[in-house]
Specification:
heterodimer; A: mainly alpha; MetI-like fold; two-stranded antiparallel sheet; 2% strand; B: mainly alpha; 12 helices
Chain lengths: 324, 304
C-alpha cells in the first residue's frame, strides 16, 4: 500500500509537470497581451517597456522556468487586468464554486441513488423505464441548456427565483457562504439544480448498474432465505455493496463538476472561479488562465489519487490485486 | 415440361446479420422515433440555403424595422411570415435555426469522423502490437480522459483562437481518446480469436490483418460510441459557442444563437433563444435514443 501511494504520487507529479509545460507553452502562443493593455496611441517604446516589465521579452523557456520557480512558491504572476496576484483572485472566487458544487453533488446523490436503486430493483417496470429515459436526457442535454430552461420557467415565467448573481452571504472566517441565508439559498437553487441534474442522471445509471450486479449474489439470496425484512436487505446488504462504485464515481464526478461549473457559472453569472476563467480567456488575461489550469490539474490529479486510495481502503479485493 | 419443379418459398429472405439488425432496431418504437427525428432535422438543416425563407447573413435582406418581432408576425415590406419571430437584428429565427443547425451538425459530423479514424487506428495498433506501444498510448489516453472534456476544449480554443476549423480540431482532440479506449478493449478480445491466428499463420501483413480482419469485428461497439459521441459533439460545440469561444460570429451555430438571445429572454422575448434551444435539444435527444437502443442490440453480451 505505501509503495502504491508513493508510486502514484510520483506519477501525479509527472502529470502535473507535463501539463504545466503544455499549458504554459500553449498559452504563450495566444495573441500579444500588451495590445490589450496599452492604449492604441501608445508608442512602440512604451510597448517595449511594458513587455519588459511583464517579462514578455525573454525567451519562452526562460519564461517557463521563471514561472515554474515562482509557481512552486505559490506565485503565479499578476493579472494583466487588475494587477492582483492571479492565485489570490482564484482563491477569492473558490468558495463560491466549491459551495455550488457541494450542494449540487449532494443533491445528485440524494436524488440519484434512491432512483437508481428503484430502477435496479424492478428493471422491467414502467417507472424504471421512465427513470432511465429521464436519465438519458439528464446527461445528454447540455448543461447550459438545462440552466436556460430553468431560468425561463422559474425566473421569467413563474418569477419565483432569481436568475443571476449570488445573493446575500454570511462570512464564516475568511469564506463567504450563501447557504446560511434564505436569499443565498434562493440564488443558489437554480445553478445548483442545473449542475446537479446532470450528475443525478449519472448517479442513477451507476447505482442501477451496481444494484443489478449485486442482486443476484449469493449473500442477497441467503439473506432472503433467512427471512430478513426486505428493508434490512436493502439498507444493509445491498447498500453496503453498491457503495464502492457510487463513492468512486461521486468522487471523480466532483472534479468534473468543478470543471463544468464553468458553464453553469457563466449562465447564472455566479461569481465563482469558472466565470473568472471564461472572462480571463476572453480578455487574454494569461496569468489567471494559466494559474487556474495549473490549479485544476493539481486538484484533479490529487482527487484521482484520493479516490484510488479510498477505493483501496473500502474494497479489500482491490488491495489484493495491487499486492499481486 | 412434365418434370415436377420444387417451388421455393419466395417470401422468406435469407437472414443476414444486417437484416437481423434492421428487424431488431425496428422493434423499439422510441429508437425509431429518434431516427425519424434525426432525419427530419438533418434534411432541412443541410438544405438550409435552398429552403430557408431568408438568408440571415445577407445584411441586405434584413429590415431593421422587423427586429424582435414575436412568432407569427408578418414582415411589412417583403411580406414573409416570421413563423418563429425575429431577433434583435431582424433575422428570421427559423432561417437562423436552419443555418445554425447546419453548422452544428457539420462540426459534429466532421469531428466525430476524424476522431473515429484517429482513435480506432490508435486503439487497434495498441491492442494488436501490445507491449510498450500499448502502454504508452493507453497512458496518454488515460491522462487525457482524467481531465474534463470541457476544460480540454476550452484550453485548446484559447490556444488556437476562434474559427470553425479550430472548433473541429478542439473537438477531435477531446474525442479521439474515447474511441481509442473502446476499440482497444474490443480488439484485445478479438486479437486472440482463431481467425486472427489463422490470418497470422497465412503470414498476412499486419496492415491487412488489422484493416481486414480485426477492424470489421470491432465495428459494433464503435458504431455505438460514434452515434452517442455525435450527440456529445453537438452538445460540446454548443456549449463552447454559448460561452463565446466557439464558432465565429459569421457562421453561428445553435449554441451561439442561444447565447445571442439570452439577454432578451429575461425581458420576456423568449423566442430568440428558445427555438434554437429546442432544435438543439431535439437533435441531441434523437441521436441519444438511437444510440441507446443500438447499444442494447449491438452489445455482444446481450446477443448471447
Amino acid at each position: 500500500m505505501p509503495v502504491f501511494i508513493i508510486n502514484r504520487l510520483f506519477q501525479a507529479l509527472g502529470v502535473i509537470l507535463v501539463m504545466s509545460v503544455l499549458v504554459f507553452v500553449g498559452l504563450y502562443l495566444i495573441g500579444d497581451p500588451t495590445s490589450m493593455l496599452v492604449s492604441p496611441e501608445a508608442t512602440e517604446i512604451e510597448r517595449q517597456a511594458l513587455r519588459k516589465a511583464l517579462g514578455l521579452d525573454q525567451s519562452i523557456w526562460v519564461q517557463y522556468l521563471t514561472f515554474l520557480e515562482n509557481a512552486v512558491q505559490g506565485d503565479f504572476g499578476r493579472s494583466f487586468l487588475t494587477g492582483q496576484p492571479a492565485l489570490q483572485l482564484i482563491i477569492e472566487r473558490m468558495p463560491a464554486t466549491v459551495e455550488l458544487v457541494i450542494v449540487a453533488m449532494t443533491f445528485s446523490v440524494l436524488v440519484g441513488v434512491p432512483l437508481g436503486i428503484l430502477a435496479g430493483l424492478r428493471p422491467k417496470a414502467p417507472s424504471s423505464k421512465a427513470i432511465m429515459t429521464g436519465s438519458i436526457l439528464g446527461f445528454s442535454l447540455p448543461n447550459f441548456w438545462i440552466g436556460l430552461m430553468l431560468i425561463m420557467l422559474f425566473a421569467v415565467y413563474l418569477g419565483v427565483l432569481p436568475a443571476s448573481a449570488r445573493g446575500e452571504t454570511v462570512s464564516v472566517g475568511p469564506v463567504a457562504l450563501s447557504i446560511l441565508t434564505v436569499d443565498g439559498w434562493q440564488h443558489l437553487a437554480l445553478p445548483a439544480l442545473t449542475l446537479g441534474l446532470a450528475k443525478a442522471a449519472l448517479m442513477i445509471r451507476v447505482t442501477r448498474a451496481a444494484t443489478r450486479e449485486v442482486l443476484p449474489m449469493d449473500y442477497i439470496k441467503f439473506a432472503r432465505a433467512k427471512g430478513l425484512r426486505p428493508s434490512r436487505i436493502l439498507n444493509v446488504h445491498l447498500l453496503k455493496n453498491i457503495l464502492i462504485p457510487i463513492i468512486t464515481v461521486a468522487g471523480l464526478e466532483f472534479g468534473q463538476a468543478i470543471a463544468f461549473a464553468v458553464v453553469t457559472e457563466s449562465v447564472f453569472s455566479w461569481p465563482g472561479m469558472g466565470k473568472l476563467l471564461i472572462d480571463s480567456i476572453i480578455t487574454l488575461d494569461r496569468p489567471v488562465v494559466v494559474a487556474y489550469l495549473i490549479m485544476m490539474v493539481f486538484f484533479l490529479v490529487i482527487l484521482n489519487l484520493v479516490v484510488d486510495i479510498l477505493y483501496m481502503a473500502i474494497d479489500p479485493s482491490a488491495r489484493e490485486k495491487v499486492r499481486d | 415440361m412434365s418434370t415436377p419443379t420444387t417451388v421455393l418459398p419466395t417470401t422468406t429472405v435469407e437472414e443476414t446479420p444486417f437484416r437481423r439488425f434492421v428487424v431488431q432496431f425496428r422493434e423499439n418504437k422510441l429508437a425509431m422515433a429518434g431516427l425519424i427525428l434525426m432525419i427530419l432535422l438533418a434534411i432541412p438543416a443541410f438544405a438550409a440555403p435552398w429552403i430557408a425563407p431568408q438568408n440571415p447573413y445577407d445584411i441586405g435582406a434584413l429590415d431593421i424595422l422587423d427586429s424582435q418581432m414575436p412568432p407569427g408576425s408578418v414582415a411589412e415590406v417583403s411580406g414573409i411570415t416570421y413563423w418563429l419571430g425575429t431577433d434583435s437584428q431582424a433575422r428570421d429565427v427559423l432561417s437562423a435555426v436552419l443555418y445554425g443547425m447546419r453548422t452544428s451538425l457539420l462540426v459534429a459530423f466532421l469531428s466525430v469522423t476524424v476522431s473515429l479514424l484517429i482513435g480506432s487506428t490508435v486503439g487497434l495498433c495498441a491492442a494488436y502490437f501490445g507491449g510498450w506501444l500499448d502502454a504508452l498510448l493507453m497512458r496518454i489516453v488515460d491522462i487525457q480522459l482524467s481531465f474534463p472534456a470541457i476544460l480540454v476544449a476550452l484550453v485548446m480554443l484559447s490556444v488556437l483562437g476562434q474559427g470553425l476549423d479550430k472548433v473541429i480540431i478542439a473537438l477531435i482532440i477531446v474525442q479521439w481518446a474515447y474511441f481509442a479506449r473502446t476499440v482497444r478493449g474490443t480488439a484485445l478480445v478479438e486479437r486472440n480469436r482463431e481467425y486472427i491466428l489463422a490470418a497470422r499463420c497465412l503470414s498476412l501483413g499486419w496492415r491487412r490483418i488489422i484493416a481486414r480482419h480485426l477492424l470489421p469485428n470491432c465495428l459494433p461497439p464503435l458504431i455505438v460510441i460514434a452515434t452517442i459521441d455525435l450527440a456529445n459533439a453537438i452538445a460540446l460545440e454548443a456549449t463552447l459557442s454559448f460561452l463565446g469561444v466557439g464558432v465565429p460570429v459569421t457562421q453561428p451555430s445553435l449554441g451561439m444563437l442561444i447565447a445571442n438571445g439570452f439577454e432578451f429572454m429575461l425581458s420576456g422575448q423568449y423566442w430568440i433563444s428558445f427555438f434554437p434551444g429546442i432544435a438543439l435539444a431535439l437533435s441531441i435527444v434523437g441521436i441519444n435514443l438511437v444510440g441507446d437502443h443500438l447499444r442494447d442490440i449491438l452489445n455482444p453480451r446481450n446477443a448471447l
